[in-house]
Specification:
Layout lengths: L11 H12 L8 H23 L3 H4 L3 E3 L6 H13 L9 E10 L10 H5 L3 H8 L2 H19 L4 E11 L8 H12 L3 H14 L15 E4 L27 H13 L2
Parallel strand pairs: 1-2, 2-3, 3-4
Helix pairs in contact: 1-2, 2-4, 4-7, 9-10
C-alpha cells in the first residue's frame, strides 16, 4: 500500500491514492487511511478483472495478494494490515497477504531506537554488536509473528514481497551521507554472511517458535535484489553489491547459499 515516510516528500502514488480515497469518502481529508482504503478496494477490483479473464481456472492459476507493511514502525505496520484487510471485508478477495520481512537498522521510521548520527559514528564492530543483540532479534520475531498470526485468522497465507538483511537510510535524515558511507564497510565484513543466514532461517521458522498464538509459517520469502537506488546502493538492501557476479565479496549471497544448502539435507 502507498505510504508517506516521515521527513520525506510524499511519493506521487501515495498522494494520488490518498486523494482517490478522499473522493470516495473514505476519510475527511486525503490521508494515509484514505490511501490504504482506496488501495484495498483497488486490489479487489483488479482481482475481479483477473477472475473474469481466467474464468474457472482462476482458483488454480492465480494467487491474489494484498500488500501491507511490517516494521515501519511495528504499530503503524500492524494498523495498515488491519485497515486493508477489514475494510469492506476485502480479505475475502485475496489468497495471501504480502508483508516486508527486513531485519536491519538505519531508518528513524523503521522502529530503530538509535539516532542516525550516533549510528553513523559507530565502528564496524560496534555495528555488529548492535545487530546481534538478542532483545532486538526477539522483538523482530515477535513483530512478524503477531502480524502472521493476525493474517492467519482470515485463512490467508503470508508471504514477504521484499525482505532480507537490510541497511536503510534516506537522504532527508540527519547524517544520511555518513551513515551511507558506513554501510559498505559493514557489507564487506564476512560476518554479514552469518547475519544474512540468521535472518532467512529465522523468517522461515516464524510460527514454529512463536510465543504468541500459533499460526502457519510464511510460504514465501522474496529477497530484495535491486542494487541501484539512492542510499540503498552497493547491496545495502539487495543480496549483491553489483549486478556482476562477485562471489568472493557477496556475503549476503553466501548466507543465502548456506541456508539453501542446509535445506537439501
Amino acid at each position: 500500500p502507498p505510504r508517506a515516510l516521515p521527513n520525506c516528500p510524499p511519493p506521487m502514488q501515495y498522494s494520488w491514492a490518498a486523494q482517490q480515497g478522499y473522493e470516495r469518502g473514505f476519510d475527511k481529508q486525503p490521508s494515509e487511511k484514505s490511501a490504504n482504503r482506496f488501495y484495498s478496494d483497488r486490489v479487489c477490483e483488479i482481482a475481479t478483472i483477473f477472475n473474469k479473464v481466467f474464468g474457472s481456472a482462476a482458483g488454480a492459476r492465480l494467487k491474489r495478494v494484498m500488500g501491507t507493511w511490517t516494521n515501519v514502525p511495528p504499530a503503524q505496520g500492524f494498523a495498515v494490515t488491519q485497515n486493508v484487510l477489514t475494510w469492506h471485508d476485502n480479505h475475502r478477495c485475496v489468497d495471501a497477504v504480502a508483508m516486508t520481512g527486513y531485519y536491519g537498522i538505519g531508518h528513524d521510521n523503521s522502529g530503530a531506537k538509535w539516532d542516525t548520527c550516533w549510528l553513523a559514528n559507530r565502528t564496524v564492530d560496534e555495528f555488529f554488536d548492535i545487530w546481534d543483540n538478542e532483545s532486538m532479534w526477539l522483538e523482530w520475531i515477535a513483530e512478524h509473528d503477531a502480524q502472521i498470526a493476525y493474517v492467519s485468522q482470515f485463512g490467508l497465507d503470508t508471504v514477504a514481497y521484499e525482505s532480507g538483511l537490510g541497511l536503510a537510510g534516506t537522504p532527508s535524515e540527519p547524517c544520511a551521507k555518513e551513515l551511507a558511507a558506513l554501510f559498505p564497510k559493514v557489507q564487506q565484513d564476512p560476518r554479514t554472511a552469518e547475519m544474512a543466514f540468521r535472518v532467512i532461517d529465522a523468517f522461515s521458522k516464524l510460527g514454529s517458535n512463536s510465543t504468541g498464538p500459533s499460526h502457519p509459517a510464511p510460504v514465501l520469502m522474496n529477497l530484495f535484489s535491486y542494487v541501484g537506488w539512492g542510499y540503498q546502493i552497493f547491496g545495502n538492501w539487495g543480496q549483491l553489491r553489483f549486478m556482476d557476479p562477485e562471489p568472493a565479496g557477496a556475503y549476503k549471497w553466501q548466507g543465502l547459499e548456506k541456508w539453501l544448502a542446509q535445506q537439501q539435507h
